[in-house]
Amino acid sequence: MPAGSFPRFVADCLSIILIDLLLAGDNALVIAMAVRSLPPKQRFIGTTFGAAAAVALRVVITIAAAQLLNIQWLKLLGGAFVIWIAVRVLADASSQAVTTATGGRFLKAIWVIVVADITMSTDNVLAIAGASRGSVALIVIGLGLSIPFVVFSSNLLAVLMDRFPWILYLGAAILGKVGAEMMLTDPFVVRTLRPSSTWLYVAEAGAALGTLVVGRLLSESARGTVPSRN
Predict the structure, then answer these.
(1) Which of 39, 61, 156, 171 is deepest in the core (most CB within 10 A)?
(2) How far apart are CA 132 and CA 130, in angstroms?
(3) Domain contains 230
(4) What are the angstrom distances between the C-alpha of 179 and each of 41, 87, 98?
(5) Does residue 204 fall inside a structural domain?
(6) How far is CA 175 from CA 25, 87, 134, 212, in A?
């Protein structure tokens, strides 16, 4: 390595970590909601495996980031998926605390983390691709070092949701807003509908409210179908 290049390498690596952390707030939120149905002891494992798998895929995508924004339907489908996660979590909120987790639930949580993280990471990927100056080593090291921070924040959010239920509803509303923004900024939607900033704000607010309403209705319906115990 040429003289003087190592300090720059370290500085660029720190820049990538900072960028990933600044832009990963919504990712940490969706991860926290995905693992909320797991027992506390399995949340850390599920979050770690899910985040690691998502970062591995994100490294590959970041290397080819120039083509990312040209993929039609990606953000449209990803936004719908994020909204579905928020509604599903609210619908399950009335269920009793989980004491055991099946392998299916554990693997489903990891799958949700990977898919949601990849579809929500367009801004992260493009920013990191620019900061890395094309260096694959920087991309791998920077994103890899960010895993512990994302795992910690996701598990902290999951614990807070258990203790303060209102955080769960706030998180669902935020994910509804994020999902709507993703869908309306998809290249196909932008080219076809050309939504204005006003419509974008209205759609985000409507999606946030709609997520809470639909999730709450499904939760009440599930509670009504649960047989009472004598």
Answers:
(1) 171
(2) 6
(3) no
(4) 29, 11, 27
(5) yes
(6) 11, 9, 31, 10
Structure tokens of 198? 């006003």
The answer to whether residue 171 sits within a structural domain is yes
pTM here? 0.66
Per the structure, how many domains does the chain have?
Answer: 1
Tens-digit pLDDT profile for residues 87-145? 887 877 655 444 444 556 777 777 777 777 766 666 666 666 666 666 777 777 777 76
**Token output for 94:** 């009335």
**Pick from 113, 111, 114, 95: nearest CA to 37:** 95
Residue 199 CA: distances (Å) to CA of 72, 134, 185: 21, 36, 12
The three-state (H, E, C) secondary structure of 66-77, written as one string: HHHHHCCCHHHH
Give the Cα separation of 126 and 130 in Å (integer): 6
Question: What's the distance, Cα to Cα, between the start and end of the chain in Å?
Answer: 73
Which tokens sit at 216? 């709450």
Q: What is the pLDDT of residue 93?
A: 66
Q: How far apart are CA 32 and CA 127, in angstroms?
A: 24
Contact 135, 13 (CB under 8 A): no
Q: Report the amino acid identity of residue 79.
A: G
Q: Is residue 128 part of a domain?
A: yes
- Taking residue 100's Cβ as centre, other Cβ atoms within 10 Å add up to 8
Q: How far is 226 from 178, CA to CA, in rounded Å?
A: 32
Alpha-carbon distance of 4 to 16, in angstroms, equals 19
Assess contact for 83 and 175: CB atoms under 8 A.
yes
